[in-house]
Write a structure and sequence with these properties.
mainly beta, 4-stranded antiparallel β-sheet, about 170 residues, single chain
């Protein structure tokens, strides 16, 4: 039997709380040194790939938290939308109808000095990560998703907070 199936909001909130509790199980990856054919018009990501192109390195996810759009202040802005960090409680997630999760890590200048990249990705890893920077993917690492983008160039001495916001709509 094939049917339309709707996951409950409580399932989504529990999934978000599970993610929040396990940041050391994820890595943020950077890749693609070489320019795209049209460098400021990157190709659409291919959902069949298993790794990013030309991996440059990986940083551990330091924190995971629910976020919600806000009209006043916020922790960060993406595409003109301000986002606030939510308390990691079921009641806060429910009150804000949370479906967005932020994976956050820190990239230090010494990790990738003045290097450009064109892909950013989220990986799950079977080995908890504590190192600040990893040059190559580890055994048991699996690509969750990625984005192709115009070149991002590091500024001298920069320390960057990298945030990936994912939508959690349901699922097991």
């Amino acid at each position: 039997m094939i049917t339309s199936f709707c996951f409950t909001q409580s399932n989504r909130y529990n999934k978000i709380l599970t993610l929040i509790a396990s940041p050391s199980s994820y890595l943020i990856g950077f890749g693609q040194y070489d320019p795209w054919t049209l460098d400021y018009s990157p190709p659409v990501p291919d959902p069949t790939v298993t790794d990013i192109s030309e991996p440059i390195g990986f940083i551990p996810v330091q924190s995971i938290f629910g976020v919600a759009p806000t009209t006043s202040g916020g922790l960060f802005t993406v595409g003109g939308v301000n986002y606030q960090q939510l308390s990691p409680t079921l009641s806060a997630l429910q009150a804000n109808l949370c479906s967005l999760v932020c994976f956050q890590g820190t990239l230090y200048h010494s990790d990738v000095p003045q290097q450009s990249w064109r892909e950013i990705a989220l990986y799950s890893t079977a080995t908890a990560q504590t190192a600040e920077f990893i040059n190559a993917p580890l055994a048991g690492t699996a690509l969750i998703g990625y984005e192709n983008m115009s070149p991002t160039t590091r500024q001298p001495g920069a320390v960057e907070i990298i945030r990936l916001v994912l939508s959690i709509k349901g699922g097991l």
